[in-house]
Every structure is written in C-alpha cells, then in structure tokens.
Amino acid sequence: MSKLVRRYFFIITAAFSLVACGFHLRGYNGTSQPMPLTVVVGSTSIANLIKNQLKAQKALVAKEQNASLVLVVISDQGNRVASALTTSAQVREVELSQTFTFLVRNNEGNTIAPKQTIKINRFMRYEESLAIAKETEMEQLVSDMKYDIAQQVMVRLRALAQNLSSNKIK
To answer: Kind of pairing, strands 38-41 and 111-125?
Structure first.
C-alpha cells in the first residue's frame, strides 16, 4: 500500500510541477480573429501545406466566389548548390534554398497584397562518405523549409485579414 501511495504522490507532484513551470501541450494558438475564408490557386507542395492548414482551421473553400481572400501561387522553387569545395574538388558544404512567390486578391479580382516572395536558405555540411545519410538530412531540411514558408504565409494572411477587418470598421 505504501508503494502505491508514494507512486500516486510522485505522479501528482510531477503534474503540479509541470503546470507550475508553464508547460502546456501544443494546440490552438488562441487567436481572437478567425481566418477568413480563403481559396488557394495553385498546386505545389507548399500550396498543399497551406491548404491543409486552412482546412484545419475550417477556412478553406473550393470556389473563389465564396472566398474573402484568394491566394495565387506564382512560383515555388527549390535549389541546391555546392557552396564550399575542398582542395580536391569535393563538396564540403551545400546551400539549400526554397523560394515561394504569391499574391493575394479578393474574389472580385482586385489585388489586396502585391506579389511577395519568401526565400529561406539553409547551409549544411556534406561528406561524400555519408552520402545516403546526408541525402536524408537534405530531404528533411527541405521539408522543414517548406513548412516554415507555409507558416509565414499563414501569418501574413492572418495579418492581412486583421488589417482588412479593421479598415472595414473605420
């Protein structure tokens, strides 16, 4: 019985300690302004990430007539360049870049936000002897860069929506 009591006491103490230090699970960020209904025109990997995030917030619509904002994807490009070589011409460092260009308009075709470009660069060391592992690491970095760009677009859409709603109020 005493072991059971100690175990429960430890679990309760640990739970209170986590709450006291400010720990909380990731979840809804609690923004007061809901995302406006948005349609994404384009079918790239980053556009699909944005669509998934809008769908999770119940802000994705299929038709432009029903949308408050229309996100038009202009380009989505990834690039990989050897940025540093050894004296024997072997790659020592690789630069990965991901560029996403878009504009935002309303459902009537008026441009709300002009063409914007988000570019993210990452550098990584490269060793020929670890080529398979480095390829996997590059794929993970590219995936993370695409997710970061999608997050930045969502922040810009939310700021644009707040700006538009505050202009309607005035």
So the answer is: unpaired
How far apart CA 14 and CA 10 sit, in angstroms, is 6
- The tokens describing 9, both together, are 């006491």
- What is the domain partition of the chain in residue ranges? 30-169
Q: Do the strands 91-105 and 111-125 form a parallel or antiparallel pair, or are they unpaired?
A: antiparallel
CATH 3.30.160.150 fits 30-169, yes or no: yes
Predicted pLDDT of residue 169: 45
**How many angstroms separate the CA atoms of 89 and 92, rounded?**
9
**Which residues of the chain carry a pLDDT beneath 50?**
169-170
Largest interatomic CA distance in the chain: 72
46 within 8 A of 100, measured Cβ to Cβ? yes
Supply the DSSP string of the chain, one letter for each residue.
-HHHHHHHHHHHHHHHHHHHTT---------SSPPPPEEEE--SHHHHHHHHHHHHTT-B-S-GGG-SEEEEEEEEEEEEEEEEE-TTS-EEEEEEEEEEEEEEE-TTS-EEEEEEEEEEEEEEE--GGGHHHHHHHHHHHHHHHHHHHHHHHHHHHHHHHHHHHHHHH-
Q: Report the C-alpha gap between 70 and 50 in whole angstroms.
A: 12
pTM over 0.85: no
